[in-house]
Amino acid sequence: MSSRGTKALRSFFGIILMSSQAHAGTVLITKQEASLPPARVIVGSRGITRGPRIELIEQAEPAHSPLHFQIRFQSFGGAGINTGSLRIVYLKTPEIDITPRVARYTQPIGIDIPDAEVPPGEHYIRVEVADSDGRTRSSIFVLKVAP
Questions:
Q1: For 6-33, what is each residue's pLDDT tens digit?
Q2: Are 88 and 129 in contact (CB under 8 A)?
Q3: Cα–Cα distance, 126 to 118 (Å, whole number)
Q4: In what helix (H) or strand (E) does residue 73 lie, and over which residues does it extend?
Q5: What is the DSSP string of 102-118?
Q6: Contact at 8 Å (CB) between 121 and 34?
Q7: What is the dihedral of CA 55, 59, 65, 69, to 10 degrees?
């Protein structure tokens, strides 16, 4: 077989191997990221604020991957949600900014990923967003995924 034919064959099999390793959904957290050491998470309440409300829409227990990942935003006082201010961080050491992974699923009413791939375990996620008046809110959620 010629060198060109061998390269074409390798390329063909490489495409087959890559497609067999493809994910069923949108990767929110990878197995490698999940294996990193946990970050120190302090969950506490703050004072009263007019910043946007951030709410994780819970799945029926237990959740399995791929899961329907939904977060809802609610603004107050006539302000809108500034989606450009959104920042989502996977709380590991070091912290992992997963905002680019959810960007295409983000709207002023929230985030809606119908097929989020998340490894089994408990995953702490911090969501930060601001409204059009500059008021911010940060919330930490625990995403529990069964094997």
A1: 444 344 444 333 333 445 689 999 999 9
A2: no
A3: 16
A4: strand 67-74
A5: HGGGEETTEEEEEEEE-
A6: yes
A7: -30
How far is residue 28's CA from residue 66's CA, in Å, rounded to a whole number? 10
CA–CA separation, 128 and 147 (whole Å): 28
The encoded tokens of residue 125 equal 């996620």
Token reading at 87: 């920042």
- Spatial neighbors of 28 by CB under 8 A, at least 6 apart, are 69, 98, 101, 102, 113, 116, 117, 118
C-beta of residue 125 within 8 angstroms of C-beta of residue 145: no
For 31-90, how does the pLDDT look when each residue is reduced to its tens digit (9 = 90+)? 999 999 999 877 665 666 788 999 999 876 778 899 999 999 999 999 999 999 999 999
**Alpha-helical runs (H) found in the chain:** 3-20, 31-34, 99-102
Average pLDDT of the residues in 128-136: 96
Q: Which two tokens stand for residue 58?
A: 């819970």
Report the distance separating Cα 69 and Cα 38, nearest Å.
21
Q: Compute how many other C-beta atoms are within 10 angstroms of the C-beta atom of residue 18.
A: 9
Query: Which residue has tokens 């967003």?
Result: 129
